[in-house]
Known about the structure:
Elements lengths: L7 H12 L8 E4 L5 E5 L2 E3 L7 E5 L1 H8 L5 H6 L3 E5 L1 H11 L2
Parallel strand pairs: 1-4
Antiparallel strand pairs: 1-2, 2-3, 4-5
Amino acid sequence: MREDGLDISEIAGRMQQGLSTRxxxxxxxxxxxxxxxxxxxDNTVSRDDRDTDCTIRITQSNLAKLIxxxxxxxxxxxxxxxxxxxxxxxxxKLGELLQA
Length: 100
């Protein structure tokens, strides 16, 4: 575990738990640079890099804040803490998944 809370594997595990009770259509990649990637596709979570409908570039620390509700997605975009590329409609569906 890192000082900022969750490591990338723990974040992926939490996302998989969220998918156990919710459906996520489309494919989305969280690109955390040197810390790795998390891909949501086919209603599963993977750490294997692949092409997706949408990519969100974010630090591992900010991703941990995002999934724990400490970072609002819209605020994150406006502050430059995350960058969305590809199909933004897929990124908008993420809000439904994060509501636990």
